[in-house]
Amino acid sequence: MNIKPFILIPAFASLIACGGSGSSLTDDGTVSLLVTDNLTQDYAEVWVNIHSVSATDNNGLTVVLYEDATGQTYNLSQLANIGALVDTQSITAGSYISFDIVMANDITLVDPNGAVTNATFDQSGNPDYNVSVNGSLQVEANQATTLALDFDLQQFTYDATSNTVNPVVVQKDPSTLHQTITTLYGEVEAITSSNQFVLDPIGEGRNLNVTLHNNATVTNSATGEVLSDTSGLAINTHVSVSGNYDASTLTITASDVQSGSDASSLTHEIEGIIETVNGGMLSINIHEANFMPSTNSISLDVSNAAFSHGALNQLALGQKIEIKGNWDGTAFTPAVVEIEGYSGNRSDDESDDNYMDDYAEIEGEISAVDNNALTITVREREYVSGINVGDSVTIDSGNSWIKHGNSSCLAMGTVIEAKGPMTGNATMSANTIEIESDCGGDGNSNSDLGDDDSNDDSNDESDDDNEDSDDD
């Protein structure tokens, strides 16, 4: 059986009370704790569970940056050149020279063929494993700084005889990261404008400013109402906020905000690819999740869920979707569904034979850049007719949500996957752009699209005939 004992969306951030609240003390500075990793091709997934991170200054004073007895689990291979926000705390100003990480003494390795190896860091039998990292972090009073800890997978070694992994963690310059991602849960502290509010995270971490991206949606998980501004929020509303984090300004640029009266209905999520669809019944190949399902696939009924992007009748094989809901330890109940790349929400009873015109997926290498107009050479495509492998397509990135990178990555040679409506015969207005290669392009990608071009061709030829059947 293909089992993953630890699965978590690497953007998940847990804010635990460790010495800080909404405003910093005079002698304190703010530290944002990120985890990231170097790039390796040996394993498609590397899962670890982090329980705590502490820092020690040059006088021997130790402060806790993050602590959670249950721990948070990260797929490190998803964090190449990406930082995941773990915590933001106010700590005593000073010079910190060492950092101690406590992890569960378990690591799961999944190779590119899907073979799973459940290993440990040592054979002690202890439930925890400690890693110490030497470095340098200067924390100034009333200033924001960032600590990035790099799980350098290229230097990890696996001993098959003992079934143990020797990890290497180093401090990394956070300015070299392409993006810092996060999903935070908490309450609305203040509403400052139609597209901005203040988030008070769960626990007593620092309050953060939230700015809605142009394509952001604000979804009420109870009513299904989908808005593009803060008009549906109120003080003390429970929310989940996902987006890009700027440690220098303590600001999240949000792609998605979900609200509801019960915070517990928002704190579990799954991201994956639809394997089967029959009305509202789905089978999903799980890529990431922030709880512990026992297998790589899960069957769900999303008939009663709200849709923040897309709608029930738009679900189709091969789509990447994100679902938030409640996990009771044995079953997951969906609350809000996002079909990644759709323009917006549509009512489930809306019958529009051309709804697929609002959605396409195209992967290719950027061959020209003219401001927000990107020309790409198509490598793979789904949900679109009349475009073949090798064709040139123009991608309008002006209002795109960029994943696994930032706008500086949209350069010649970079491989991207764009999702959104086709606005012309060979033009897409992309809602989502995912960076599939390193900035500047390495010629490789980890595509979510089909690997078999012949399958793509058959899908293209039958798009018009099968749109109704896709709804079933």
Task: Record the SSE blueprint.
Layout: E1 28-37, E2 45-57, E3 62-75, E4 82-92, E5 94-104, E6 107-110, E7 116-119, E8 128-139, E9 144-151, E10 157-159, E11 164-166, E12 169-172, E13 179-193, E14 196-201, E15 208-220, E16 226-227, E17 238-246, E18 251-260, E19 268-278, E20 281-289, E21 297-301, E22 306-309, E23 320-327, E24 332-339, E25 360-370, E26 373-382, E27 392-396, E28 401-403, E29 415-420, E30 422-424, E31 427-429, E32 432-435, H1 453-461, H2 463-470
Parallel strand pairs: 1-9, 4-13, 15-18, 22-24, 27-31, 28-32
Antiparallel strand pairs: 1-4, 2-3, 2-5, 2-6, 5-8, 6-7, 9-12, 10-11, 13-14, 13-17, 14-15, 15-16, 17-18, 19-20, 19-23, 20-21, 23-24, 25-26, 25-29, 26-27, 29-32, 30-31
Describe the structure.
- The chain is globular.
- Helices cover 4% and strands 51% of the residues.
- The protein starts with 27 loop residues before the first strand and ends with a helix.
- It has an eight-stranded mixed beta sheet, with helices on one face. Strands 2, 3, 5, 6, 7 and 8 form a six-stranded antiparallel beta sheet that branches.
- With 472 residues, the chain is mainly beta.
- The protein has four domains: 28-177; 181-265, OB fold (Dihydrolipoamide Acetyltransferase, E2P) (Beta Barrel); 268-339, OB fold (Dihydrolipoamide Acetyltransferase, E2P) (Beta Barrel), CATH 2.40.50; 357-464, Beta Barrel (OB fold (Dihydrolipoamide Acetyltransferase, E2P)), CATH 2.40.50.
- The chain is built from two helices and 32 strands.
- Residues 1-26, 346-356 and 441-472 have low confidence and may be disordered.
